[in-house]
Structure formats: C-alpha cells, structure tokens
TrEMBL record:
The keyword RNA-binding applies. This is MBL fold metallo-hydrolase. Residues 15-239 form the Metallo-beta-lactamase domain. The keyword Amino-acid biosynthesis does not apply. It comes from the Bacteria. Keywords: Exonuclease, Hydrolase, Nuclease, RNA-binding. Coiled coil: none annotated. SMART domains: Lactamase_B. Signal peptide: none annotated. InterPro entries: Metallo-B-lactamas, RibonucZ/Hydroxyglut_hydro, RNase_J_2. The lineage of its organism: Bacteria, Bacillati, Actinomycetota, Actinomycetes, Catenulisporales. Pfam families: Lactamase_B_2.
Amino acid sequence: MATTVEFWGGVGVIGSSKVLITEGDHRVLLDFGLDIPRGTDLFRPPVVPRPQHYLADRLRVGAAPRLPGVYDPAMLGPGDPLGAAGPATAVFVSHAHIDHCGLVGTLRPGIEVYGAPETVAVMAALAAAGDGLPGGDPGWRPLAERTPTAFGPLTVERITVDHDVPGASGYLVTTSDGVLAFTGDIRFHGRAPERAWRLAELAAGCEMFVTEGTALGLPVFPGPVRTEDDVVRDFAGALEAAGRDLVLLAMYPRDLERVREFVEVADAAGRRIVWGAAVAAFLRALDVECVVAYDEVGLDGIKADPGAFVYQPDLRDLRGIPDLADLPVGAGTVWLHANGEPLGPFESRWDLFVEWLAALAIPLRRIGSFGHATADDLHTLVHRVRPRTVVPIHTDAPERLHPVGGPARLLAEPARAYDLGGNPIRNPGA
C-alpha cells in the first residue's frame, strides 16, 4: 500500500507541527504540537482553560485538529466521533517546546510517545515542577540517536540537531516508497552547527524533506546573525554597566546551555541569579548547579543588596507584574530580555509588559539570539539535502522557500494526503 503524508499542523503558521505518515495499518506522527492561532488567541489571559474540558474546548473553537484515532476519549465531548479507535499510531517528538509537544497529553492511552533522552528529562522536570502537559504526561520512551525503530512497515531514526533546547532532533522515516526526513526546529548559528549539517548529510537524496521555515516570513536580518557568544558577552557587559543596581532578566529556562552559561557569568560578576519557585524547581530537577529560588532570598534580601542579584520574575501569566513596583530600581537597573517570557511583540502579553516597564522607568534591552535557521541557511540546507520534494512548514511564508537545482516545492494544504512525491491523493476529510 502506498505511503501517504498529511500535515495536520504547521501549515501557514509558525509552530503547531504535526506530520502524519501512513503505510498500511500503521501511522507515525512527527510532533503533536499545540496549535498556534493565525489571529487572536482565544485562550490568552485572563481566560483560564478549563482542565476537565481542555481538549474539547480547543476542538470546539478550532484550536486543535480533528485528527481521527489519536485522542483520549475521556477528554472529548460526549459522542464525539474522534473517540473511535484508529490505526496503530506512534508519536515521535522533535523537542520539548509546546508548539511541538503541547498536545501529547491528550493522546489516546496506548499510543507510544518517543523522544530524545534529553527531551524526556526536560518534560519530566517540568512535570515535577508543576508545569506538566495538560491531560498529563505520557509514558515517554527515550530514543537513542541513530537507533532505527520499527513500527509496522515504517522505520524511524532520530538525529540530534541544534536548537535552543536540549535533545532537539530531526527524524528519518523509511517507508516502502522511500525516506521522509524532518528537521524539527533547527539552527546553524548555535554552539553545535555540525549537528544540523549532519542531518543534511544523512537525509541527502530523500524523497520528501519537511523543513521548518520560521525565518522565511521574518524581515531580513540587520547585519550578522547573533550567536551565543554575542548573548553571553552582552549579558556580562550589562552586569558590569549596572554597577551595584539590580538587574532583571527574562530568559527561556529550557535553554539549559544558556542557563548554565548565565549562572557562570553572574557568579564571575559577584551576583546570583534568582528564579521564581517553579523555574528553580525545574532547574534543580535537571541538576543545574547554583540555583537560587526567590523565596530563599525574598524581597528584603534583594533590597538589602541589589547589586548581588540578577532576578527573573515569573511572568508567564503577568499576574505578578504589580509586584515589580516593590523592587529596588536604581539608575543602573535594566531588564535584559534573552528570549524569555513574554516571548516578544507577537504575543498578546507583550504590550502590557512593556507598558509596565515604561511606567516603572526600567529600560528594556533585548540581548537574545534567534533560535531558528536563517532564510539563507534554510536554502543552503535544502540544496545540500537535494530531496525530490521539499515541504516548508512552521512558517507563515512557505512560498518564500525557493529550491534550486531539482527539488519540487510543495505548499501543503492542511489535512490533505500526499504521496512522497508531493502529489495529492485525496481531499481533506475524504
């Protein structure tokens, strides 16, 4: 029976990756990410999702795909036909970001979920810190690199790549009709670009190459791409410039490489990074050294010696923003944003965050580094892989990928089935 490929997420949007490969009565699902809305996010604060209706509510408003045979019937509305069992399915997660694994907790019992050992460790630490997946975490199966795993007629192999979270992976799926390769999220300007280029070598000549294309829809980068060396240098310089005043921080805790480097830089500057309780618990579960929780220092401790600390408040839902008014803000105080919460101007929380900083006279300085491949690197990647067909997803501008020298480009439609050559087989829902 011919292999089919369907794209149930990541089509025309950044995030929400879901690539379904079917052969016979077996299916492999690459990523099962939380859907990222094209427009307004109906679940943004102050809306609080209903835990007992989490999946049903998202399906009702189109914030989760109606993919048959994968959801836990207990999380669906009464009589929802999605509760019927489907073909044997296994899920392979590329990395521990919510837009790639955020719906894994809604999966039907018995569906196997695989990921890199580092991904499994990050997800376990999140659950231990009270930040697990809605619906609960599955029984994660750690998958060693370059270890072919058979699932019916399909064979899946995990390849470590470079991204801003441990365990980031691409996958090779071998079918009777050839190989489909998937990048997950990938970059070439981090600490380990050789990992990303190795995926290109291993995927070379594949039938279908599914690549993230986040940067395709973004403005041209002004000047050289910022590296992790740039980020660390700017962090160290900002601490020196602050003198003995408090420095505030917003960085992404799952970027453990950067966390450890920042802890070392802060220590060299005579400071300790203070984290909110949940983040501190998460980092300790992953054996990060020198973790200091806010409740161990307290506001009085920070006020007593502001220059001894870098403080990252917990602003995931912004309810703690008024507490910022109590902090000892000095002339050298600055808020360093290194890809933390809130994530950026595209978020509904960003404007309120910036307004509060302006009202409190706290300068905002963005020192992060882009976690995804640039458009130039994406084109080089496709050229090196030389697939028969390339499919850009995880981007709002897939039409800006222009393969040269042979590969056909498929601008996929949601839920439509294609063969590995990119030819449509049936209409969505047929």
